[in-house]
């Protein structure tokens, strides 16, 4: 068992040796190889066979239009489902099933985020509906953050302990060999500490505990735990299931600049789309999971950045494919990434997305594990590989092909190409098709408005207009905050220049819970 | 409310895949110039693109008005033309007409660049002397006009020689055959043969011929620009342009286009016998009977 755990927790090629190292290293190169080959192929074709490049670009633009339609259908359905789920009285629904035995272990890892951010998240937990004594809170601090931060954590514990079933503070030691400083190592440490200090001590069965690993800026909606409990109790095989809420970045969205808002809401939309395609869904950011499953997988990986999605793959392979993510279609609210300085905001968003796209480190892992888990049906393994490879390849290449490389045959093509009808029609046909695809943005604008929390009084009504107009920034954000960080991540992985964990700085205006969640548009309308 | 059922998603996927399989090839064919004829036959069409330097010009195809240019869309593009021969006319009030006959090939665009010179070019006299004042401003003097002083020496032939012409395998041949002067701009050289005929020579790579060096069959390095009209006194490119050439003939100064495809448009710039010109620092200067003018187009 121990050996298997070590194998399952591969972080990167250097954790292996010999031919395994070589194989894994090649797999690390694969995503960048595919992406760069695609882009260079377009450039090469544009120079030497521009007509082929033009055919490819026209067909690809149309493919993109259809993909937009396809994804918009998913988005719209999830939007309706999310609103419906927000309107449900989950406590009432839960009352029909036996649920008193369930405990929610809430892990809140933090580094040096503002106290207000931590307090707001804890306050939101207090404002949830249901028996708060079922909530076991773990405030997971980092030793490397310093004494003052740790002291703050204990202050929070003293202040809020009585409100919950229990409240402990864990301090993840710094410089542990084999670990990467970051969220994964912190929450794994916290989970193990909670197991000993809370679960074992109080003889709570692991099967009755649902762990919610939340980013520290996660503000839960009042019915989150009721909704989660109901799904846990009613779904088939909950011990082989992770539960994924929809991350809304609503905490400070009214204060964020347009670029930050577009990027944040786009991330939400992508998760909403994935919620309607559960076979493609992996856990992301704040998620919930049974403690039993987590314990068997030896918690989250401590030696890598993308622990949130990796835990799903750990469990997928450790359970020989018998594992899934159940989309809750119920939101949690988080911070939009921005600072008071515009360019710093851009830099932070870029870094955040580079960290997210660093999830490409799952590609070699999935392929490697698929080779050694032959009891998983081949089609299931191939689908898992294809979904991941396609996902990272698409995000790094598609925006560049659509919005930049589409012009290359015209720019680089020979004079012989320049006098063809194809050369003259390339830009207009591609532009027309892409303009049609942009109608998908109208859907996005409508849905995003409906998900907004109420406008704070200090923002003028006209800001609504910008909340709509902001969507014209999408082509830009797709390139700057999707394709380029995606390419950088893949290239870094290929070159062995591995990314470390980067803590997203939180800049949240000090909202009270009533401002950010309790009176959000969603709840106001539906509860 | 349940998630989108897998079967529903599959149906959408199938529907969109079918749409892609059917429509994408049609889009590619359309973009390549294929059209459906009235007999429902797939035919290859071509088009014409004319670059127009000024806004507000009208575009006639076989004497039928097809459109007018605007401030933002000066150029004309027309496609869906069945292969054949078409005559294009571009005109605008106050400017000389430009006409060209194009042969349209299937799936190809015939390019043109309209030469539209004003009927009366704006000319600014450059006097030899200008009136200047002393530092105190109390008295006036006649001062030598530096613009005049700088321009006049260019009107002696000594300023024109082959030294600026790039040397190379092809240019050596040109040099040996050239009788008088040679000019070059943007990989195109102008030269006169020993008979006095004016030629344009493509100096760039063979796979980079500009469209006006090519007719429907092939591209050629050498275009015979002018073989008549009298003795050429001087020639040069129109400023910032390597497709139009200014030529001094005995009856004045004219501009012609480089184009191997059909009779070249020749428009008058300064149709006064005995006038000569020079292009100096991208300005056109005319010397007419001792008077110097700067021409604005």
Please characterize this protein's 3D structure:
The complex is a heterodimer of chains A (527) and B (297). Chain A is α/β, with parallel strands linked by helices and 527 residues long. Chain A is built from 22 helices and eight strands. In chain A, α2 packs across α13 and α13 packs antiparallel against α14. Chain A is globular and about 80 Å long. With 297 residues, chain B is mainly beta. Chain B folds into three domains: 27 residues; 72 residues, Immunoglobulin-like (Sandwich), CATH 2.60.40; 143 residues, Lipocalin (Beta Barrel). A four-stranded antiparallel beta sheet of chain B has the order 5-4-7-8, with no helix packed on it. Chain B has a four-stranded antiparallel beta sheet with strand order 10-23-22-21, with no helix packed on it. In chain B, strands 13-14-15-16 form a four-stranded antiparallel beta sheet, with helices on one face. In chain B, a hairpin with a 5-residue loop joins β1 and β2. At the A-B interface, α3, α16 and α17 of A face α1, β3 and β9 of B.
């Amino acid at each position: 068992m121990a050996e298997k755990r070590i194998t399952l927790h591969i972080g990167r090629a250097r954790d292996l040796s010999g031919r395994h190292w070589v194989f894994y290293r090649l797999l690390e190169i694969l995503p960048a190889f595919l992406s760069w080959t695609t882009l260079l192929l377009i450039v090469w074709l544009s120079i030497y066979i521009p007509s082929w490049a033009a055919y490819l670009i026209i067909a690809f633009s149309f493919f993109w239009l259809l993909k937009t339609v396809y994804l918009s259908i998913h988005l719209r359905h999830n939007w309706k489902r999310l609103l419906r789920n927000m309107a449900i009285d989950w406590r009432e629904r839960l009352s029909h099933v036996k649920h008193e035995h369930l405990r929610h272990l809430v892990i809140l890892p933090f580094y040096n985020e503002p106290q207000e951010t931590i307090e707001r998240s804890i306050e939101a937990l207090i404002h949830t509906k249901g028996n708060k004594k079922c909530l076991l809170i773990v405030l997971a601090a980092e030793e490397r953050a310093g004494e003052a931060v740790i002291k703050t954590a204990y202050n929070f514990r003293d202040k809020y302990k009585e409100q919950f079933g229990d409240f402990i503070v864990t301090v993840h030691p710094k410089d542990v060999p084999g670990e990467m400083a970051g969220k994964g190592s912190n929450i794994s440490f916290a989970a193990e500490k909670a197991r000993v200090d809370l679960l074992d001590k109080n003889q709570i069965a692991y099967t009755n505990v649902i762990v919610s690993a939340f980013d520290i800026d996660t503000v839960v909606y009042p019915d989150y735990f009721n909704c989660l409990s109901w799904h846990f109790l009613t779904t088939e095989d909950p011990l082989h299931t992770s539960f994924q809420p929809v991350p809304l970045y609503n905490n400070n969205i009214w204060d964020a600049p347009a670029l930050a808002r577009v990027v944040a809401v786009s991330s939400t939309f992508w998760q909403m789309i994935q919620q309607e395609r559960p076979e493609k869904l992996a856990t992301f950011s704040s998620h919930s999971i049974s403690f039993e499953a987590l314990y068997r997988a030896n918690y989250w990986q401590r030696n890598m950045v993308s622990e949130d999605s990796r835990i799903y793959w750990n469990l997928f392979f450790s359970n020989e494919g018998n594992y899934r993510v159940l989309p809750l279609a119920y939101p949690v609210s988080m911070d939009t990434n921005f600072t008071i300085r515009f360019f710093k905001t851009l830099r932070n968003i870029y870094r955040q997305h580079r960290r997210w796209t660093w999830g490409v480190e799952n590609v070699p892992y999935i392929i490697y594990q698929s080779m050694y888990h032959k009891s998983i049906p081949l089609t299931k393994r191939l689908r898992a590989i294809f979904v991941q490879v396609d996902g990272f390849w698409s995000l790094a290449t598609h925006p560049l092909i659509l919005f930049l490389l589409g012009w290359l045959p015209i720019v680089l093509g020979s004079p012989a190409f320049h006098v063809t009808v194809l050369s003259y029609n390339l830009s207009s046909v591609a532009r027309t098709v892409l303009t049609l695809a942009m109608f998908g943005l109208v859907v996005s604008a409508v849905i995003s408005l409906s998900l907004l929390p109420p406008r704070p009084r200090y923002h003028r009504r006209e800001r609504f207009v910008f909340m709509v107009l902001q969507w014209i920034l999408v082509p830009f954000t797709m390139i700057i905050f999707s394709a380029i960080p995606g390419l950088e991540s893949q290239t870094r992985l290929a070159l062995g220049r591995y990314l470390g964990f980067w803590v997203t700085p939180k800049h949240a205006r000090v909202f009270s819970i009533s401002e950010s969640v309790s009176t959000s548009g969603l709840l106001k309308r539906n509860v | 409310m349940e998630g989108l059922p897998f079967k529903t998603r599959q149906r959408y996927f199938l529907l969109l895949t079918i749409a892609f399989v059917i429509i994408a090839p049609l889009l590619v064919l359309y973009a390549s110039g294929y059209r459906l004829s009235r007999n429902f036959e797939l035919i290859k069409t071509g088009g014409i693109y004319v670059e127009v330097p000024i806004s507000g010009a009208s575009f006639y195809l076989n004497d039928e008005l097809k459109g007018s240019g605007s401030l933002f869309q000066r150029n004309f593009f027309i496609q869906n033309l069945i292969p054949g021969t078409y005559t294009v006319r571009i005109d605008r009030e106050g400017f000389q007409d430009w006409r060209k006959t194009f042969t349209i090939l299937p799936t190809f665009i015939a390019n043109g660049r309209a030469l539209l010179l004003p009927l009366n070019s704006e000319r600014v006299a450059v006097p030899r002397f200008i009136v200047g004042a002393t530092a105190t401003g109390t008295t006036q003097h006649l001062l030598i006009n530096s613009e005049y002083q700088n321009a006049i020496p260019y009107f002696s032939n000594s300023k024109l020689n082959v030294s600026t012409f790039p040397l190379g395998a092809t240019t050596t041949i040109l040099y040996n055959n050239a009788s008088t002067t040679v000019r070059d701009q943007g990989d195109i050289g102008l030269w006169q043969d020993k008979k006095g005929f004016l030629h344009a020579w493509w100096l760039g790579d063979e796979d980079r011929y500009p469209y006006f060096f090519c007719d429907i069959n092939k591209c050629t390095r050498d275009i015979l620009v002018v073989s008549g009209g009298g003795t050429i006194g001087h020639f040069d490119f129109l400023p910032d342009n390597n497709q139009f050439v200014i030529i001094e003939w005995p009856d004045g100064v004219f501009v012609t286009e480089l184009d191997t495809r059909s009779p070249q448009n020749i428009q008058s710039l300064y149709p006064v016998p005995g006038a000569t010109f020079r292009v100096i620092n991208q300005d056109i200067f005319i010397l007419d009977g001792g008077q110097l003018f700067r021409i604005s187009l």
